[in-house]
Amino acid sequence: MTSTPATLNYEKPTPGGRYSLWDLMRSEWLKLSSVRSTFWTLGLTVIIGLGVSAIASSVTRSHWSSQSASSRASFDPTSLSLTGVFVAQLIIGVLGVMVMSGEYGTGTIRATLSAAPRRPLVLLAKVAVFGAVALVVALVTSFLAFFIGQTLLSAPAVHATLSTPGALREVVGTGLFIGLIGIFSLGLATIIRHTAGAISTFVAILLVVPNILRAFPNSVFNDAIRYFPSRIGAAFLSSNQGPPRNAFSPWIGLLVMAAYTVALLILGAMVMVRRDA
Amino acid sequence: MIEAKGLTKRFGDKLAVDQLSFEVRPGFVTGFLGPNGSGKSTTMRMIMGLDYANAGDARVNGHHYHDLRWPLREVGALLEARAIHPGRSARKHLLMMAAANRIARRRVDEVLDVVGLTDVANQRVGKFSLGMGQRLGIAAALLGDPGVLLFDEPINGLDPDGIRWVRLLLKSLAQEGRTVFVSSHLMSEMALTADEVVIIGKGRLIVQIAIDELLAQSSRRSVRVSSPDLASLRSALDGVGATTSVEDDGSLTVRGKDHREIGTLAAQRSIVLYELTPQSESLEEAFMDLTESSVEYTGSPSASPQQLKETER
Ligand SMILES: Nc1ncnc2c1ncn2[C@@H]1O[C@H](COP(=O)(O)OP(=O)(O)OP(=O)(O)O)[C@@H](O)[C@H]1O
Ligand SMILES: [Mg+2]
């Protein structure tokens, strides 16, 4: 005795083609824009970027008369106005981590990969959407910080305009660098998966390891420090003194940073493909 | 249609799924039964391409999950652990899934309605109760109107109304010709819902069998009988090959004959019966028997395919 077998077989037409990168990018956009933490962190990135820069600029302006002639001569108003943007890299990095680690932490990754089992394509969509958002926010913050800072550096302090030699490079370079930092940390989280672990690693690479390096003999430090993101970033903030010593020139540094990011993402894609979700 | 062939999964030293082969056919509710830790969830994750098999192969509609062109339109799954960002609303969760497979937005509202979450669709999922989360998971599974559905312990956290609703839903999905594969560790639940069960123990297939057949085959199936003339009844039953045992309360437990046969026999011999009750817990016992003895199959890897054939309808 068995129950009557249904002869009907569920058939329905499916559209031609296949889910595409564009479909996944739309999905990623919905994910990114539907959690509050995105807005908090991006908001905080802008607020800190602008706030710290504004404070630095007004403090400098108010102490201007007590500055020595030599420090006035070497003063770079563009760098100063971008101080806050560099502080904000920590926050955009945290967001980059959470965009990926959040998927694993909450289990959303299973829904994501059920809809799109080609994992590298999922990663690519995430990088495209988050990367675009991070770069736009970083560039806008960088420009705003520059304009606010220059406005606050009123006479007698000197200030820059975008046509001041090196200023535009500093502003654009800083924006690109900070945006890249966000993608870099997303790549880290693809490999590490856990929020806390990925954020610790990110902070270690950015701040801790370069400081530990100072304990080594100068020759070692000088050779190694140029490869760290912090030094690469610093190279953008020195238009009127040439790049800091033991550093790549700004644009080469940006390429190195981009190479790191691509390498992390390729490694991340490999880890994603090999490991269970 | 879901096919598993020799599926094997190791976690370190632990063999979670061991050369598991079975087929889940369209038009039926197929239960996936096994004690805790027997590898049900792992098997489902392998079918979905989320976990990788160390050996063997799982296919859905003849394809590896990875190669599906519109996965959510072909396969829907509610997996065991809640897989939803607590900060996202139910609607946004479904919308982001729909976008990935180009499913119309209106379908999101449809499935929210089907599972009864329309009123809370814009609330953050973090505030949902276990049952509401489960309903959202079911909505996600139905999103692409797929022909193949997997549910890992779908009644977890549901109230009696919810359980009844899931039962009816599973049956109606199968009646529409869909493939419905649903895990549970409760044989009694599957007896109410499933047409067929795949029973595993320690990651190995024990048997794939129709529920009715399982009921019929169960040697443990018993009937409780009481009668003022116990001695005559016992000898009559012994005469037709049933086994009997007298319980403490003076009733008789009969195995090997069902209640119809016993009643007929008693009438023919003019033996008065006070009680004739088929013991319904025997199904759960049958399941326990099967899973306890799963170790017996260790030595004979050929047992599984053969059993499969035997139980094919
Ligand atoms: N990610 C993992 N890492 C290590 N071991 C795992 C993992 N997932 C499952 N296991 C182990 O594999 C075995 C099978 O687990 P699984 O969750 O598939 O069983 P199950 O049949 O779903 O159990 P339950 O009825 O409790 O849900 C268990 O021993 C479990 O501990
Ligand atoms: Mg399970």
Structure summary:
The complex is a heterodimer of chains A (277) and B (313). Chain A is mainly α and 277 residues long. In chain A, 72% of the residues lie in helices and 0% in strands.
Q: Could you explain the architecture of this structure?
A:
The complex is a heterodimer of chains A (277) and B (313). Residues 1-7 of chain A have low confidence and may be disordered. Chain A is built from 12 helices and no strands. Chain A has one domain. With 277 residues, chain A is mostly helical. With 313 residues, chain B is α/β, with parallel strands linked by helices. Chain B has 2 domains: 2-216, Rossmann fold (3-Layer(aba) Sandwich); 222-279, Alpha-Beta Plaits (2-Layer Sandwich), CATH 3.30.70. In chain B, 37% of the residues lie in helices and 25% in strands. In chain B, the strands form 3 sheets. In chain B, strands 5-6-7-3-8-9 form a 6-stranded mixed beta sheet, with helices on both faces. The longest helix of chain B has 16 residues, at 160-175. The two termini of chain B are 16 Å apart. The complex binds adenosine-5'-triphosphate (ATP) and magnesium ion (MG).
Q: Identify low-pLDDT runs of chain A.
A: 1-7
* Separate helix tally of chain A: 12
Rg calc of chain A: 23 Å
User: What is the share of helical residues of chain B?
Assistant: 25-40%
Unreliable residue runs of chain B: 295-313
**What's the mean pLDDT score of chain B?**
88
Head-to-tail CA distance between termini of chain B: 16 Å
Under CATH at level 1, the class of the largest domain in chain B stands as Alpha Beta
C-alpha Rg of chain B, in Å?
Answer: 23 Å
Number of domains of chain A: 1
Shape of chain A: elongated
CATH architecture of the largest domain in chain B: 3-Layer(aba) Sandwich
- Structural class of chain B, by secondary structure, is alpha/beta
SSE pattern of chain A, N- to C-terminal? HHHHHHHHHHHH
Number of helices of chain B: 12
